[in-house]
Amino acid sequence: MQKTKNPESKMQTICDDKDRIYDYMLAMVPGVGDVTISALMDAFGSAKEVFKANEKQLSDVNGISKKKCSEIIRTKNAEEEIRQKISRWNRDGIKAVFIHEQAYPKQLRNLADAPFAFFYKGSLPIGAAPTVAIVGSRACTEYGKNVAFSFGKRLALEGVQIISGMAAGADVYGHKGALSAGGYTAGVLGCGVDICYPRTNFNVYMEMQKTGGIMSEVIPGTAPAPGLFPRRNRLIAALSDAVIITEARLKSGSLITADQALEQGKDVFAVPGRIGDPLSMGCIELIRQGAYPLTCVDDILSSEAVKRKIKPCNSEAYKGQDSSDHSTDDENVYAKKVLKTLTDIPKNINRIMYEASLGYEVTAQSLLELELHGMLRSVSAGLYVRAEVAV
Q1: What is the pLDDT of residues 144-196, one digit of tens each?
Q2: Is 63 within 8 Å of 56 (Cβ atoms)?
Q3: CATH superfamily label, 7-93
Q4: Is the terminal CB of the chain with fewer CB neighbours within 10 Å at N or C?
């Protein structure tokens, strides 16, 4: 069998679209996890070659037991059934990106156990854009809800993408804050992307698919299970440039996310709370251990990892123009750059500003000008498409 020469080779594999079925199949082999898949990809070079291998060739790969060999062969024989399942997923708006593909989030590749397949509905976060996770207690106080919502909103207005776990409590309020600003927000689930958990977040779950995304490393249809939530926390940390903990008990899932972020070298911010309040004790402990106390939005925006990704506002671009001088002709290069990014596929302001290489303020102003001149349409809150006919 052909051996790969370096760990990066599997990232460089070029697969024909029709061969993606084998990637799906490999991701769906029962009992074969990401570490084992990595070993198989190193040994055979592609998922297609894995399924061409016989039992002897498979068993020669480190970590492949007789049972795993049997499961791989059984999955190979179920190809037609799997094709039908993928067709249903496509109809339901469920997509997948695989670790060797260019669209795969680069931040996840740094994980020792990076998921081979990453499933999502909506859109993936922009790697070049700043991303902040907002997590906290499910049983958060009104203060915790307000903090998560306000930071989600204010950071989104600065062009920051918001990531969380779509859990009840602080997580969902961070998502709601970003949505209220028309920003990008994504939830990383501890279940399949086709399952809204908890069900009380259904409206947010649906709204996030319009301007953001729903993501998971597990196969669609996988029910939520306790062991899946700590694992998804490492993905939240990996996708983020910084992590905010709003409220947390001394033993909580939020602290797992904080620990994962620290291990990955990310900045962790904790909201100082009231002494003696059980929901503040986790944050106080994090600050004692070296987390940054969070007092205002500027604390986050001044974080080096976030700051270097924020587009300059370029607010000077509109100085000297009066309201009658605003136009979408050649004199307004900014509006033209924004217009070039627009198609018939809805995009939110975060994606537009990064495709146009403009700051948030200039992008927002250009969108307003283009809408006033009939060059674009707002199809729903925070989503824009190019108008078919200019008025």
Answers
A1: 999 999 999 999 988 899 999 999 999 999 999 999 988 999 999 999 999 99
A2: no
A3: 5' to 3' exonuclease, C-terminal subdomain (1.10.150.20)
A4: C
